Fold:
Amino acid sequence: MRFFRRRTAQDAPHEVDDVAADARAKAAEFWRRWDELLPRVAAALGEGAPQQLDAELAAAVTALHPDLAFSLEQGGRTPYALVVSGQADPRVRPYTDAWLAAAPTGDALFEYHDAVPPVPDPTQVVVNLAGERWPLADVRVFAQVDEAEGVVDVAVYHPGFAAVEPAARSALTFLPLDAALGERLAADRLGRVETAEREPQGAIGLLEFRELVRGVGAADRPDDAG
Structure:
């Protein structure tokens, strides 16, 4: 259910004198447009065809800032979540901050995030990829903490790795990490990420892995839980 827009050459942003004011104005325009689109978005989701609104949602996010990505996710407290993310780019943080500050409250259908949040229990997730179903409960992660850098180097193993093409194997390497940690914590705390062809000795499951990563440098940040 995830859509990501890609920047094109025509999308190059213009410099603005007052970034905060520009961000607030564009956030307000986004939410005006979202109100118009919401009934159709809800209908498309109900029909299992969210791609029907891909182009219009992409246009609305592009108007907010061309370097932003968006996705529609399963919500934690509501059925769905809209994520508009700068993918850890500090240049666009004023726009995601303004967008989130102006987001609706008390919405029964959607929740809103400026980074992809972690899945409550990634071991319950089954990924559909390359025509197959891949339970993330089967994923094992070998994690090595670099205390000096405050990051975790990982090797990810799934018993189905041997049967898939390299592109699918790469996706199955990173999807479990995003599901377990969420976008922000993964960007902050993951160092080297490798694919393991055999299960490494000492590998752990995704829930244990999440607790390990959340404990790295926890005193240096207020909240990484998503």
